[in-house]
Amino acid sequence: MLLCLAGLALATHVTTFDIDPLYTRGAFTGFESLLAEPATLQSQLRPASTAPGGAEPVKNAAAAGEKALVFTNPANNGAELSVNGTKVGWIGPYATVRMDGLARGAYTVRLAFTTGYVRTFQVVD
Fold first, then answer.
1. Neighbours of 50 (CB within 10 A)
2. CA distance 58 to 98
3. What's the rounded Cα separation, in Å, for the pair 82 and 110?
4. What are 83's strand-pairing partners?
5. 65-91: pLDDT as tens digits
6. What is the distance between the alpha carbons of residues 30 and 92, in angstroms, rounded to a whole number?
7. I need a labelling partner for 53 at 20 to 30 A (CA). Which of 3, 5, 24, 69 fits?
8. Could you please report the per-residue DSSP string of 5-67?
9. pTM of the full structure
């Protein structure tokens, strides 16, 4: 009986894994859900000229020369992600997202958590 239950547990286990946004190609990858069409966002989002006060500096994890913004959520909660004030989508805890087609430069990334807490980052090259 015990062996049968162990076999059932193994048979119903689903192996999950995170998509590696450094190697996965798509307009916007790694998000749990998007709030806007990626093509629209690619045409609207431009590097920010100034950083908001109190923004935490973070390095863009995209490889040199790539037109992309790569950002990792440092929190253990999912959050709504905005770039330069434009809502983009929902990012999971400790998840990394990749937004292809964005010009290199500084972007303001805002994470709004379900608890009401907000963190703001200045993502730079």
1. 9
2. 14
3. 5
4. 86, 109
5. 889 999 999 999 999 999 999 999 999
6. 9
7. 69
8. HHHHHHHH--------TTT--SSEES-SEESS-HHHHHHH----SSPPTTPEEEE--SPTT--
9. 0.80
